[in-house]
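Homework-ish question, so no full write-ups if that breaks the rules, but can someone show me the predicted structure for this set?
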Amino acid sequence: MNPMEHPPIVDRSPLHDFLAPNAIAVIGASPDPTKRGYKAMLGLVKDGFAGEIYPINPKLEHVLGVRAYPDLASLPGPIDLALICTPASTVPTLLRDCGEAGAKGAVILASGFGETGPEGAVLEHEVLAAAREAGVRLIGPNTSGIFNLHHKVNLLALENVRPGDIGIVSQSGNMLLSLALEAQHNGQVGFSTYVGPGNQTDIGFDDYLRYLGEDEKTRVATLYVEGFRDGRRFLDVARAVSAVKPVVVYKAGSTDLGQKAASSHTGALAGSYAMTVDLLRQSGVSVVQYSDEILPVAEGLGLLQQARGKRVAILADGGGQATIASDRLAEAGLELATLRDSTRQQLAEVLLPQASLANPVDVAGSSDANPSILAECMAILADDDDVDSVLLIGMFGGYHLRFAEELLGNEMRGAEAMIELDRRTDKPLVIYSLYAPVKPPALRRLHEAGLPVYHSIEHAVRVVAALGERGAYLHAMASPEWATTVTPHPGHQAVLARAHRERRDLLEPEAKALLGAHGLQVPEEKVVRSIDELGGIAEAFGDRSLAMKVVSKDILHKSDAGGVQLDLNGESALREAYTRILDTCRTHVPAADIEGILVTPMARKGTEVIIGMIRDPVFGPVLMFGLGGIFVEVLEDVAFRAIPLTRQDARSMVSQIKAKKVFEGIRGAVAIDQEALVDLLMKVSSIVSAYPEIESLDLNPVIAYADGYAVVDARIIVDNKASIQPEGDIT
Amino acid sequence: MNPMEHPPIVDRSPLHDFLAPNAIAVIGASPDPTKRGYKAMLGLVKDGFAGEIYPINPKLEHVLGVRAYPDLASLPGPIDLALICTPASTVPTLLRDCGEAGAKGAVILASGFGETGPEGAVLEHEVLAAAREAGVRLIGPNTSGIFNLHHKVNLLALENVRPGDIGIVSQSGNMLLSLALEAQHNGQVGFSTYVGPGNQTDIGFDDYLRYLGEDEKTRVATLYVEGFRDGRRFLDVARAVSAVKPVVVYKAGSTDLGQKAASSHTGALAGSYAMTVDLLRQSGVSVVQYSDEILPVAEGLGLLQQARGKRVAILADGGGQATIASDRLAEAGLELATLRDSTRQQLAEVLLPQASLANPVDVAGSSDANPSILAECMAILADDDDVDSVLLIGMFGGYHLRFAEELLGNEMRGAEAMIELDRRTDKPLVIYSLYAPVKPPALRRLHEAGLPVYHSIEHAVRVVAALGERGAYLHAMASPEWATTVTPHPGHQAVLARAHRERRDLLEPEAKALLGAHGLQVPEEKVVRSIDELGGIAEAFGDRSLAMKVVSKDILHKSDAGGVQLDLNGESALREAYTRILDTCRTHVPAADIEGILVTPMARKGTEVIIGMIRDPVFGPVLMFGLGGIFVEVLEDVAFRAIPLTRQDARSMVSQIKAKKVFEGIRGAVAIDQEALVDLLMKVSSIVSAYPEIESLDLNPVIAYADGYAVVDARIIVDNKASIQPEGDIT
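A: Not a homework solution, just the prediction itself:
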């Protein structure tokens, strides 16, 4: 079993101790309604917090009728949590007092720390040191605060938010406010715990996610993230949590502009957006692309079954909206289910002759006088084994408004039938109604019974897609096939150690030898060190066309330095090329230490792909896969996965490439052996895990064939040293 | 001046005669509330239609208190419009009666025509013939109906829709209903005229758009389109209308699934989505990608100024949402304006020290106790000459709810200042508030004064983008540089005529000669017809490497038939290649009529692009541009424009390509001469306009260089004939 399969999360998160506190001190409690020290008191008092509330203010006897204390030392009993509303400079001293008062956690609202520059960073460091010494964990600084509505801890004093099962961690206070208002407006969604992680000085997203994963009141963990502090640990926690409940992430900074905006907002180190999204998805996270989809997707994932597959049945009472839904489904990578004959027959029995029984099913007026027929059709569709989810599109809930008031009873019966169906089927029923903004009775009833109703076709389809992705993830993780553990070879470890000592990368033949030793398909090759060896070489390779490449630690860009000669036939051509390579390389890089010349048969033509590995400062070892050349460089059409991989990960890397049609053979070209590439990715994952000395790795190009592949060039960079380039080298 | 610049729309649309009628007959008027014949009567009576209402029902004396008539012949006066609620089969006879009753138009609700199959198509044909004979124009059949709210003609009896300035033509009745409910919910948007074009048997989208363009009550024309009947005419009308008011189109069928769904819904012929979108944008249409953006974009375009450029200033009271907005801006191709120093200084004077004065401007608490400061900042930003539009992001309108009730007055003053700013500036102010769903007083005030407030950052940014695109379009069309008119050359017309007679394409040398005659850069080349000519040829081309290609009307795929030999040096190589080409071609295509062998110098290496022209059955002559090879075939990274082009069109074709970085030179390659490609596109446009005999054209590849380009291969297909391929040819 791979160590990544079960991240080592066995203890209960320490965050429970203060996110569900028994006694809270509000440091800087105030009677001024514009102050946070008032708001927090108001939230606690108004919501009826059952534990002890200790306002701290040396100038006041009471705040909002609660007895105030001059300082923490004067408190009559211990506290679990302190809310610090005072300025940044007061925090280090206060933290020491907090520790003495028994606090396990402190929420620091003040800004003016690392996010403002070097001076603030020093203060932030001091704060962290004080907290460690005092044994107090920190939320923030620079946070909008927290709430735990089920525990009546509403330190933001948000009004009109209902306790519910969506947990939120958001680096933007406005985003929390926006979600709360949307939920209030929606009327059915509620929240469990909210945390603003602020600068993540002590506690990071990983810790908060772990807490939400354990919190019984939280059914969906929802995160707005500008940057991760420890991305690798977050991935591990996400994998563990997403096995038991959905994790929804909106990652800010999808573009350079956004990244720039985010970095001026918080100090977090942000990896590339595309990579972050790939790694989050690999760990079971539902990544939301647009901010206005966060709540709909969280609600849907919390309430509805995940889907077993991508085959969607659309039931519509109008062709136009069915078309829109079909477009969005296809864009999201979903499919229209092909309905079974028996399903069509059953539909034909309940619908009018003009109904369209192909998917999308258009009832074409059949429901006008009998809207509950839609529930019957949904049941027929859900019972089709070739259907994974059912999407209802149209005006359900509003028939009595549009056609005749008498239809209300019929609609209510339809709603009950849908609720009944939802209880008995294991497939998601996703409902869009154009009457959703009006909240008619049948839709209110559905909502009450746990069936969300969306008022945007786009959002409804995003929910269908998220349920499908979650189903596919859980299915794949039910029996993951991890990259095997390989034992590092002492000889190659020695080569790596030597390169490290010599502060250089592996030479191409060294890299290929290492890869070949672990089963990668590398071409036959020989390194010659004198022109006299060429006669024997030409003979050894028979009549094949050959390529020659300079081998030198000092020449990274071989072609640019004139270090590559191709399509060579016969000894005299080899000799001529040998001399030419040495001459031009010595002209380009006079100080180059040339190890020899590599001779290898010309690779057969095929499809060029690139496989790379980097150790990302946030996410650790990450594998990259893409098509060669312009596809990687211009179109950035690449897939990333954290190492180690499962076979499912490797397969999804290959199938994720937008230009993947190339793999299937275009313009009469043959299809390549995709499973061989999958094996290759798995082996690279194993090698990287076995050799921590490998800092990064670049197989470029790998040529893929109908039968296997060839690693034509390979570069392995050792440790963390920068590549040393002698002056005069061209790059 | 190009004839396309002012489409020949001089008369007033005949649709005014019956879309603003004085007398209406409702054929099939009914007292049954579930019938459309009841709904229409209800709509007319309830809304207080001021003209004559004639219910037609032989079984009733009155319908809804209005005197009924047994048939049209019994009416006491003439009608302008008939609403036909009776079944399909009754329609032809009724149309004749309508004509006699003076009707200029008829709305046919019934389905059961062409959309159901061949039998229905026959009936539809019959209906059209009857209408023509009777002099009656047709709306539908298979339509949801019409309304003209300012004229109190509400034949759908929609409740709670406000008269306003958004005109709608929608092939989906549910989409209209959805927009109406959204508008009702939004509370500020209203509609002028709605038409469901149904099968477009007589009147198509082009006619309706022309009507909306002329209609004084309509400020924005909004269309949901599944398919155009006469796309070319629509483009012409769109160009004329978009010069005076915004045209918003949602085109269904963006994917194969959606196209399939749409085609089962109506019978319309739908071109490729990507092409349709490009052509609509070329004609000034604002194309909306998601259905839930239709109303927000229409509202914004109707109320706000278009932007002069892409430089957006974001003003936010929270960093997170500014980041989201920045991401969406960049995705939409917009830019964050670089603020002038004077702007920053002015902002610094009103904001707290911790505010971020770079764009996005984050007031960082400065507005908490004084929200109207946001209006001051908006004015400062709007006055910056390097800012084209201002986007306010955050909680404006809700400060008094979140912080202190006393702030309400301050917020109202802020709203007035924003309204004042909107009146004096020529830049759009786009406002997102997370409090929009709550509709607090300041936001209601903004809305009343014509400043929309969005409750989705995504929608707000789409509006900013649409205003920018409209501004850019109007700017470009203020001084369009049309492709010049060229005079066809009699010699080449004769060649085309001969190819037409012989039912073949132009031979490659014929095609290149035609193109070269009109100034395209085609390589020097000679056609040899006997091996003995090769000596002179080799000499003529000096020591350049040469390529040879078979010339035969029977061999389309020259490479596949062995008809191409490259990199030939010297006479003996030419002779050998000549023989090899003839031998292999005769093996592959025994019956091929071989005209000769084309000899030409090998083209220099460069960047391969493709230029094609097709005569689309819906949109007429369309030019396509893309990068060569895989980019066109796999990634479909191409741009389309209707011919004739303006220079701005040609430039935007080149800059639209996703892989356009390639043109700028990557991996050390030189940048290509993009303006030469622009010239080339303009010349191809001119040639296509001059030679209507050219059915399609394919320049593939064109090799682009730092200095000019070379048309390396060219194919011109004549007329409408299918290419005749002899048996045995491989393709």
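Now go work out the reasoning yourself. Hint: The longest strand of chain A covers residues 694-704.
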